[in-house]
UniProtKB/TrEMBL annotation:
Claim: Transferase is one of the keywords in the record: no
Pfam family, one: Peripla_BP_6
Signal peptide: 1-40
InterPro entries: BCAA_transport (IPR051010), Leu-bd (IPR028081), Peripla_BP_I (IPR028082)
Domain of life, per lineage: Bacteria
This protein's name: ABC transporter permease
Organism, as annotated: Bordetella genomosp. 2
Length: 419
């Protein structure tokens, strides 16, 4: 046998080898395709696993924290506890507003615990760290932090930004107030990505409106004494002081500005205001403050009904972040259910295809750059005597259509859009 084979001409043997290889490829290809399709269409680990990663105990705990976990739980219950016929599991982690801590938790969740998607973050620095990790692993991130770079330079095929941006709440608010005659601004900025993004958008809007920024000072996160920073703002003579911060930093600045007699001589603008901030300050301190928000619990009968359910479970009315986490998780699960898979890219494609319909978004849509576009609301904090019930803090002045307040897709720096 071997003698016969060796006696064949070399060219004939080579042709036979090529034919056998081609035949094997044809026979094996359908099986490989079927295996690939089964993997893409299935649910990894036989469970859909979602993580809520945010500040559970620090400056952003009230506006997100355990309330975001409860909101995500409400979304899961609305799905009946399953997606694509598989059980949904929810876990939570505290990133302590530290990017390395958040990245470490996310890495463990992705690589060892089979987490398919992570939502919230609230802190932009943590969000960027996890967004990059998730993109490398094909996992989904649902971001409730403000930097526009999430859907700009840092965008990925599996990330979405859901609630608001520094452009909607910083640029938009500054544009309105500059047009009203506030031409001289001073920026009091928290010193990390969140504050830097807000300050940059405010600066651009002010200068575009013919105003000027008289100065800027940056303070560390969780600053208890704002006196030195506020005195610099006061000395600038600016007509308005913009607080490019949030949470306890913002409320501390507002209270201390009143104590030092800075207001009402100089007005305050606070682009990142949450319901819990007003609750903590009280309407006496907050009355008259104007800002942009993505959600108000008492806006419609539907938002009120959902928010009352949330209140029964959490003991406080939902902030825009908490309502946004509910919306993001619900839409993600609907997409998993429709796609029949938890594969990140497949789910995100389905999320872009489906309209976003819920008490938070109304009628929203997810763009190619990962931005979820929805209506926003210009509101004013009520005077104490105008509040009719607990948590009745906002007067809605204007509904701003999503296409008007979010940065246009044509201006996006997202590489996925520019390809």
């Amino acid at each position: 046998m071997n003698t016969q084979q060796s006696s064949r001409p070399p060219a004939r043997r080579a042709r036979q080898c090529r034919l056998r290889a081609a035949l094997r490829a044809v026979l094996l290809a359908p099986a490989a395709v079927m295996m690939s399709a089964a993997t893409a269409s299935g649910i990894s680990g036989d469970v859909v696993k979602i993580g809520i990663l945010n500040d559970q105990s620090g400056t952003y705990a009230d506006l997100a924290g355990p309330g975001s976990v409860e909101a995500a739980r409400m979304a899961i219950e609305e799905m009946g506890g399953t997606a694509a016929g598989k059980k949904i599991e929810l876990i939570a982690g505290n990133h302590q507003n530290k990017a390395d801590v958040g990245a470490g938790i996310a890495r463990t969740w992705f690589d060892r615990e089979g987490v398919d998607a992570i939502a919230d973050f609230s802190n932009s620095a943590v969000g960027f760290a996890v967004q990059a990790l998730a993109g490398e692993r094909g996992k989904v991130t649902l971001i409730a932090a403000a930097s526009p770079d999430f859907t700009g330079k840092a965008c990925t095929a599996t990330s979405a930004q859901w609630v608001y941006t520094s452009y909607t709440n910083g640029h938009g608010l500054a544009q309105v107030l500059t047009a009203q005659g506030y031409k001289s601004w001073f920026l009091l900025t928290v010193d990390y990505a969140f504050g830097h993004a807000f300050a940059a958008d405010i600066r651009r809007a002010v200068e575009a409106g013919g105003g000027k920024v008289a100065g800027e000072v940056r303070h560390p996160l969780n600053t208890a004494d704002m006196s030195s920073f506020l005195l610099q703002a006061q000395a600038s003579g600016a007509s308005i002081i913009a607080l490019a911060n949030a949470g306890s930093d913002m409320t501390t600045a507002i209270k201390q500005a009143a104590e030092f007699g800075i207001t009402p001589k100089q007005a305050l603008a606070a682009p990142a205001v949450f319901l819990t901030d007003i609750h903590g300050m009280g309407l006496k301190a907050a009355q008259g403050l104007q800002f942009v928000t993505a959600f108000y619990w008492n806006r419609t009968p539907e938002t009120r009904a959902w928010s009352m359910k949330f209140f029964e479970r959490h003991g406080a009315m939902p902030t825009m972040t908490q309502a946004g986490v509910y919306s993001a998780v619900l839409h993600y699960l609907r997409a998993v259910d429709a796609a029949g898979t938890d594969d990140g890219k497949a789910v995100m494609a389905k999320m872009r295809e489906l309209p976003v319909r819920d008490v938070f978004a109304g009628e929203g849509r997810l763009r190619a750059d990962g931005q979820m576009v929805h209506d926003m609301y210009l509101v004013r904090a009520k005077a104490p005597q105008d509040s009719k019930e607990p948590w009745d803090y906002y007067e809605i002045l204007e509904t701003i259509p999503g296409d008007k307040i979010f940065k246009p897709l044509s201006a996006s720096e997202c590489p996925l859009v520019r390809q």
